[in-house]
Design brief:
Length: about 450
């Protein structure tokens, strides 16, 4: 048998470093700021929801909370994406953090003074404007901090940081709210102000490695470029549409105060703590899944994996609707978070790595429109369906609807089944995406 020359044998591929992103100092600062910003948002959501339900006793009021947050974000997200591509993303984020921080001061004052709920909705609209204009810059800023070979790892850890904050925030907020019936909500909102202030300071200290001045001119064509890119490249369109309708129909987060009260029958003074526990269980599931994904190689059959994960998300939502005990509800929320996080990692990695940097802010803005529509507008949908059909039927029906969305997306966009390894993703040219779209239309 002939001897094999060792020099002709290809070395094995290097094992991915599961902590590669954390070795970048600016990423550590970015992740710390993101943690505080997310803490602030989750505490704010719990505190405002508890306040609105306590003031009105109406599940529809929780739906209006979702609508007040959804409409400005959907209308202004594209403009926020253009800001991210034209100006210094870090400074855009700083200005919007100032706006949302001041808005949190207003919410705390309104809750302390027992202001009418109309004032709360108005302040939520202002807060949503800041979120919409700043979110594309925050997301696209990551590509100026982390190199492409570590980007998937950074996205996974970003999701972990987000979910840890989502776990800690509701528990902390719920405990603060339950300490005092009169001052609990204002104190929780004061915590929001402190977290946003610290997040602002962390963002100011970031150092980026890319040029920060963008040359894109302001025009209708440039504003619409992100929408056109997403529409032409069907795998991205399919993944964000799948997430949109699955979470829009199957999400139950906004009605958790009513669920704790009417289904789990917890005492009124414990509603805030139970809502915080349920939201934290969802985050705990996402954290466990994110850690698993960070220690594994990049997902190879990302399309199939995402479809199965979203179908599992729908099934877990059905289990939540049928649960009658707190422990069963916590398990269902844990599964919801774990399965949803797979979809999050696949979607965000695809969008950031496939999009050219000059368009990353605008394409991220389109994705944010879908996220806001699925989360906040989904809160409106949850409140309305619970008001019309009952709380439990709305949750169970939403879970089954999410499973049907998976089937519909796989049928409409078979390209999603051909999405391969996340490690092989590279930026694509807009003209290529347009050509592929034209060829598909011609084929039909």
């Amino acid at each position: 048998m002939p001897e094999i020359d060792p020099s002709t044998v290809a070395p094995p591929p290097p094992r991915p470093d599961p902590y590669g992103a954390w070795k970048i100092p600016s990423y550590r600062m970015y992740a710390g700021s993101w943690f505080l910003i997310t803490i602030a948002r989750t505490v704010e959501t719990v505190a405002v929801g508890v306040y609105l339900y306590a003031q009105t006793g109406d599940v529809l009021a929780l739906g209006w909370q979702g609508l007040a947050q959804a409409l400005p974000a959907m209308l202004l997200a594209i403009a926020g994406g253009h800001l991210a591509d034209r100006f210094d993303r870090r400074m855009v984020l700083v200005f919007m953090l100032c706006l949302t921080g001041l808005d949190a001061v207003g919410l705390a004052a309104a809750a302390y003074l027992q202001a009418p709920v109309s004032w709360i909705y108005l302040l939520l609209v202002v807060n949503s404007i800041g979120q919409a204009l700043g979110a594309p810059s925050r997301t696209a800023l990551l590509s100026w901090i982390v190199p492409a070979e570590r980007f998937s790892n950074a996205v996974t850890w970003n999701s972990t940081v987000f979910q840890i904050a989502t776990m800690v925030g509701p528990v902390a907020g719920g405990l603060i709210i339950s300490t005092d019936e009169r001052l609990g909500v204002p104190l929780a909102l004061a915590m929001v102000v402190a977290c946003r202030t610290l997040g602002l300071l962390g963002t100011l200290s970031l150092k980026t490695t890319r040029g920060e001045q963008r040359g894109t001119s302001i025009s209708l064509e440039s504003l619409m470029a992100g929408i056109r890119f997403v529409w032409n490249y069907k795998p991205i369109l399919a993944t964000i549409t799948l997430d949109l309708f699955a979470v829009l129909l199957g999400g139950a987060t906004f009605v958790l105060p009513a669920f704790a009260d009417r289904v789990l029958h917890v005492p009124k003074e414990s509603v805030g703590a139970v809502v915080g526990s349920l939201r934290s269980a969802e985050a705990a599931g996402a954290i466990v899944m994110a850690i698993i994904l960070a220690h594994l190689p990049p997902i190879r059959r990302a399309g199939w994996t995402m479809l199965w994960a979203v179908a599992g998300f729908g099934a877990a939502t059905v289990c939540l609707g049928f649960s009658q005990a707190l422990w069963a509800s916590l398990l269902a929320m844990f599964a919801i978070g774990a399965l949803d996080n797979i979809s999050v990692v696949v979607r965000h990695t695809m969008i950031q790595l496939l999009t050219p940097d000059a368009m990353r802010g605008r394409v991220t803005a389109v994705n944010n429109v879908f996220i806001v529509a699925s989360n906040e507008l989904g809160g409106m949908e949850s409140g309305c369906t619970a008001w019309l059909f009952g709380l439990v039927p709305s949750i169970v029906g939403g879970g089954f609807a999410s499973i049907l969305v998976v089937v519909a997306c796989a049928w409409l966009w078979p390209q999603i089944l051909r999405i391969g390894s996340l490690a092989d993703l590279r930026p694509i040219d807009e003209s290529i995406a347009r050509q592929e779209a034209d060829e598909q239309i011609a084929g039909r």
